[in-house]
Design brief:
With 239 residues, the protein is an alpha/beta fold. The chain has 8 helices and 6 strands; from the N terminus they run αααααααβββαβββ. The longest helix is centred in the middle third of the chain and has 17 residues.
């Protein structure tokens, strides 16, 4: 069965889920509006969403693509394409905490309107009748195009960042994420990734995060290669 064609692009459909008043409100709250001239905060958000959807590789890739589709971009609440220098400057001087606040506010908005959002499907990999919340804790290294970023220096000629993620396996939505330099070891961030766990909840991780046992109640530790799966139960409660 072929999917039905839609007159709206995927980017516009995603942007329609963002409340109209939310971006200007957050821009004033984080002082982003004072640093914006021709490139508005809303256009910045739309551009960065396009980066993720299109897997853009460079500033030129983003600027050229959006400029070539400026007519369609205008229909998304009047968004305008950025210049290469304009997007670079906006990413450098504007507060990135606004993007984090926008994510949680949009997620809360969608869950209020659709209580079953993220919970309508069942993952066959989880045991049946599993009532406790299960989290997957792991990390991934993100290679960066620009090797001139000092904080992200990973190798002699490479730059990278590492994303430490806590994923809710019931909703498949991220609960907590830490993005730092790639040299950070998993065990040093496992403490913070497990701080929000409540009594009875379960975290699944590999052996490199065994240090996190100081804070979580129950763990599923997955060994490497052909080793067996080991389960470690916590003794101390969260304080």
């Amino acid at each position: 069965m072929k999917p039905a064609k839609h007159q709206y692009t995927i980017l516009k459909q995603i942007c329609n889920h963002i409340p109209t008043h939310l971006v200007p409100k957050l821009a004033r709250s984080f002082g982003v509006d004072k640093k914006a001239r021709s490139f508005s905060p809303w256009s910045h958000i739309v551009s960065m969403l396009h980066v993720q959807i299109a897997h853009s590789l460079s500033l030129n890739d983003v600027a050229d693509t959006l400029r070539n589709h400026s007519g369609v971009l205008t229909t998304i609440r009047g968004a305008t394409p950025p210049s290469r220098n304009g997007l670079s400057h906006a990413n450098r001087v504007r507060d990135p905490n606004m993007a984090q606040a926008l994510f949680w506010d949009v997620l809360s908005h969608i869950q209020n309107n659709h209580p079953n959002f993220g919970r309508g499907h069942k993952y066959s990999g989880l045991p049946k009748k599993f009532k406790r919340t299960v989290y997957a804790v792991d990390s991934t290294t993100i290679q960066l195009v620009a090797n001139c970023i000092d904080w992200a220096k990973h190798r002699r000629r490479k730059a990278a960042a590492k994303c430490h993620m806590q994923l809710n396996l019931q909703t498949f939505l991220p609960e907590f994420a830490i993005v730092k330099e790639a040299s950070t070891h998993d065990s040093t961030e496992a403490y913070r990734l497990c701080l929000n766990l409540k009594s009875g909840e379960i975290a699944v991780f590999d052996c490199r995060k065994i240090y996190a046992e100081k804070n979580c109640l129950q763990f599923g530790s997955i060994a490497h290669k052909n080793r067996k799966i080991g389960i470690a139960n916590k003794i101390r409660k969260l304080g």
